[in-house]
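dumping this here before i forget
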Amino acid sequence: MTIHIHDRHHAGKLLAEKLESLVQGKDCMVLAIPRGGVIVGDEIARILGLPLDVIIAKKITPPDYPEYAIGSVTFDGVLFYGHDWDRYSDDPRFQEEINKKKAEVTRQIQAYRGHTSYSLEGKTILLVDDGIATGATVSVILKWLEKKKTRQIILVTPVIPYTTHEVIKRFGIQIVAIEIPMEFSSVGQFYRKFDQIPDQIVQNILQKYRK
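structure:
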Protein backbone atom coordinates (compact mmCIF):
# COMPACT_ATOMS: atom_id res chain seq x y z
CA MET A 1 0.00 0.00 0.00
CA THR A 2 1.36 3.42 -0.97
CA ILE A 3 0.90 6.04 1.75
CA HIS A 4 -0.07 9.36 0.20
CA ILE A 5 -0.61 11.39 3.39
CA HIS A 6 2.41 12.67 5.30
CA ASP A 7 0.64 14.15 8.34
CA ARG A 8 -2.56 16.03 9.26
CA HIS A 9 -1.24 19.34 7.88
CA HIS A 10 -0.54 17.68 4.54
CA ALA A 11 -4.01 16.06 4.61
CA GLY A 12 -5.61 19.48 5.11
CA LYS A 13 -3.74 20.93 2.13
CA LEU A 14 -4.77 18.03 -0.14
CA LEU A 15 -8.40 18.31 0.96
CA ALA A 16 -8.45 22.10 0.52
CA GLU A 17 -7.49 21.56 -3.15
CA LYS A 18 -10.43 19.20 -3.59
CA LEU A 19 -12.82 21.62 -1.85
CA GLU A 20 -11.85 24.86 -3.58
CA SER A 21 -14.41 24.66 -6.40
CA LEU A 22 -17.12 23.28 -4.09
CA VAL A 23 -17.09 26.20 -1.65
CA GLN A 24 -16.89 29.13 -4.08
CA GLY A 25 -19.65 31.66 -3.53
CA LYS A 26 -21.10 29.81 -0.54
CA ASP A 27 -21.42 30.84 3.09
CA CYS A 28 -19.16 28.09 4.47
CA MET A 29 -17.87 27.10 7.86
CA VAL A 30 -15.36 24.42 8.85
CA LEU A 31 -16.70 22.38 11.76
CA ALA A 32 -13.88 20.16 13.02
CA ILE A 33 -13.93 17.16 15.36
CA PRO A 34 -11.14 17.37 17.98
CA ARG A 35 -8.47 16.69 18.35
CA GLY A 36 -6.84 15.60 15.10
CA GLY A 37 -9.68 16.98 12.98
CA VAL A 38 -8.85 20.47 14.20
CA ILE A 39 -5.35 20.26 12.68
CA VAL A 40 -6.81 19.17 9.32
CA GLY A 41 -9.64 21.70 9.61
CA ASP A 42 -7.25 24.54 10.43
CA GLU A 43 -5.33 23.97 7.20
CA ILE A 44 -8.56 23.90 5.18
CA ALA A 45 -9.93 27.03 6.89
CA ARG A 46 -6.64 28.90 6.44
CA ILE A 47 -6.23 28.04 2.76
CA LEU A 48 -9.88 28.69 1.84
CA GLY A 49 -10.30 31.70 4.13
CA LEU A 50 -13.13 30.19 6.19
CA PRO A 51 -14.14 30.34 9.86
CA LEU A 52 -13.37 27.30 12.05
CA ASP A 53 -15.35 25.89 14.95
CA VAL A 54 -15.53 22.54 16.75
CA ILE A 55 -18.20 19.97 17.48
CA ILE A 56 -17.79 16.91 19.69
CA ALA A 57 -19.71 13.68 20.23
CA LYS A 58 -18.91 10.62 22.33
CA LYS A 59 -19.28 6.95 21.61
CA ILE A 60 -21.65 5.08 23.91
CA THR A 61 -20.40 1.73 25.16
CA PRO A 62 -22.14 -1.03 27.15
CA PRO A 63 -21.39 -0.95 30.91
CA ASP A 64 -19.14 -4.02 30.80
CA TYR A 65 -17.52 -3.45 27.39
CA PRO A 66 -15.84 -0.02 27.44
CA GLU A 67 -14.13 -0.57 24.07
CA TYR A 68 -17.27 -1.56 22.12
CA ALA A 69 -19.18 1.38 20.62
CA ILE A 70 -22.87 0.69 20.09
CA GLY A 71 -23.89 4.28 19.45
CA SER A 72 -23.01 7.88 20.14
CA VAL A 73 -24.43 11.04 21.70
CA THR A 74 -24.10 14.83 21.41
CA PHE A 75 -24.01 17.33 24.28
CA ASP A 76 -27.73 18.07 23.88
CA GLY A 77 -28.82 14.44 23.75
CA VAL A 78 -29.07 13.58 20.03
CA LEU A 79 -28.50 9.82 19.83
CA PHE A 80 -27.23 7.56 17.08
CA TYR A 81 -28.15 3.89 17.48
CA GLY A 82 -25.54 1.48 16.14
CA HIS A 83 -25.46 -2.31 15.95
CA ASP A 84 -26.43 -4.10 19.16
CA TRP A 85 -28.04 -1.01 20.72
CA ASP A 86 -31.19 -2.98 21.63
CA ARG A 87 -29.12 -5.77 23.08
CA TYR A 88 -27.73 -3.52 25.82
CA SER A 89 -30.20 -0.65 26.16
CA ASP A 90 -32.32 -2.46 28.78
CA ASP A 91 -29.39 -2.57 31.21
CA PRO A 92 -30.37 -0.31 34.14
CA ARG A 93 -26.88 1.25 34.05
CA PHE A 94 -27.26 2.25 30.43
CA GLN A 95 -28.97 5.61 30.99
CA GLU A 96 -26.17 6.44 33.41
CA GLU A 97 -23.64 5.82 30.63
CA ILE A 98 -25.55 8.14 28.25
CA ASN A 99 -25.78 10.88 30.91
CA LYS A 100 -22.08 10.54 31.72
CA LYS A 101 -21.07 10.88 28.05
CA LYS A 102 -23.40 13.86 27.53
CA ALA A 103 -21.79 15.59 30.51
CA GLU A 104 -18.28 14.82 29.21
CA VAL A 105 -19.10 16.27 25.78
CA THR A 106 -20.67 19.39 27.30
CA ARG A 107 -17.60 19.93 29.49
CA GLN A 108 -15.23 19.57 26.52
CA ILE A 109 -17.22 21.93 24.29
CA GLN A 110 -17.35 24.50 27.09
CA ALA A 111 -13.58 24.20 27.52
CA TYR A 112 -12.94 24.72 23.79
CA ARG A 113 -15.63 27.30 22.98
CA GLY A 114 -16.86 28.78 26.26
CA HIS A 115 -20.50 27.96 25.40
CA THR A 116 -22.70 25.38 23.64
CA SER A 117 -24.76 27.58 21.32
CA TYR A 118 -24.30 27.20 17.56
CA SER A 119 -25.64 29.41 14.76
CA LEU A 120 -25.41 27.33 11.57
CA GLU A 121 -28.63 28.17 9.73
CA GLY A 122 -28.22 28.62 5.98
CA LYS A 123 -24.52 27.73 6.04
CA THR A 124 -22.61 25.11 4.06
CA ILE A 125 -20.86 23.04 6.72
CA LEU A 126 -17.56 21.29 6.05
CA LEU A 127 -17.53 18.62 8.77
CA VAL A 128 -13.88 17.67 9.13
CA ASP A 129 -12.15 14.79 10.91
CA ASP A 130 -8.63 13.38 10.54
CA GLY A 131 -10.02 9.96 9.61
CA ILE A 132 -13.18 7.92 10.06
CA ALA A 133 -13.33 4.26 11.07
CA THR A 134 -16.80 2.99 12.08
CA GLY A 135 -18.52 6.35 11.56
CA ALA A 136 -20.37 6.21 14.91
CA THR A 137 -19.19 9.67 16.05
CA VAL A 138 -19.72 11.32 12.67
CA SER A 139 -23.19 9.77 12.27
CA VAL A 140 -24.56 11.37 15.43
CA ILE A 141 -23.06 14.75 14.45
CA LEU A 142 -24.73 14.45 11.04
CA LYS A 143 -28.05 13.75 12.79
CA TRP A 144 -27.42 16.79 14.99
CA LEU A 145 -26.61 18.96 11.95
CA GLU A 146 -29.84 17.88 10.23
CA LYS A 147 -31.71 19.77 12.97
CA LYS A 148 -29.69 22.95 12.46
CA LYS A 149 -31.26 24.13 9.16
CA THR A 150 -27.92 24.14 7.35
CA ARG A 151 -27.88 24.73 3.61
CA GLN A 152 -25.53 21.85 2.80
CA ILE A 153 -23.26 19.41 4.64
CA ILE A 154 -20.01 18.12 3.17
CA LEU A 155 -18.13 15.47 5.14
CA VAL A 156 -14.38 16.01 4.70
CA THR A 157 -11.83 13.42 5.78
CA PRO A 158 -8.46 12.11 4.60
CA VAL A 159 -9.55 8.48 4.97
CA ILE A 160 -12.83 6.59 5.30
CA PRO A 161 -13.23 2.84 4.68
CA TYR A 162 -15.42 1.89 1.74
CA THR A 163 -17.99 0.12 3.95
CA THR A 164 -18.36 3.17 6.24
CA HIS A 165 -18.48 5.46 3.19
CA GLU A 166 -21.48 3.52 1.85
CA VAL A 167 -23.30 3.77 5.20
CA ILE A 168 -22.64 7.51 5.62
CA LYS A 169 -23.80 8.18 2.04
CA ARG A 170 -27.32 7.32 3.22
CA PHE A 171 -27.43 10.67 4.99
CA GLY A 172 -27.62 12.20 1.51
CA ILE A 173 -24.51 14.31 1.97
CA GLN A 174 -21.42 14.85 -0.14
CA ILE A 175 -18.23 13.12 1.03
CA VAL A 176 -14.78 14.44 0.10
CA ALA A 177 -11.92 12.06 0.93
CA ILE A 178 -8.37 11.27 -0.16
CA GLU A 179 -8.50 7.51 0.52
CA ILE A 180 -11.58 5.22 0.46
CA PRO A 181 -9.91 1.84 1.03
CA MET A 182 -11.59 -1.55 0.69
CA GLU A 183 -9.18 -2.97 3.28
CA PHE A 184 -8.88 -1.02 6.51
CA SER A 185 -7.48 -1.70 9.96
CA SER A 186 -6.89 1.79 11.40
CA VAL A 187 -6.81 5.45 10.36
CA GLY A 188 -3.13 5.70 11.36
CA GLN A 189 -2.01 3.21 8.70
CA PHE A 190 -2.78 5.81 6.00
CA TYR A 191 -0.45 8.43 7.50
CA ARG A 192 3.34 8.51 7.70
CA LYS A 193 3.04 10.54 10.90
CA PHE A 194 -0.03 10.18 13.13
CA ASP A 195 0.90 11.46 16.57
CA GLN A 196 -1.23 12.37 19.57
CA ILE A 197 -2.40 16.00 19.59
CA PRO A 198 -2.14 17.80 22.94
CA ASP A 199 -5.20 19.76 24.05
CA GLN A 200 -3.18 22.96 24.20
CA ILE A 201 -2.51 22.86 20.46
CA VAL A 202 -6.25 22.62 19.77
CA GLN A 203 -6.89 25.53 22.16
CA ASN A 204 -4.23 27.65 20.43
CA ILE A 205 -5.70 26.99 16.98
CA LEU A 206 -9.24 27.84 18.10
CA GLN A 207 -7.99 31.04 19.72
CA LYS A 208 -6.96 32.34 16.28
CA TYR A 209 -10.54 32.13 14.99
CA ARG A 210 -12.24 33.86 17.91
CA LYS A 211 -13.43 37.32 17.04
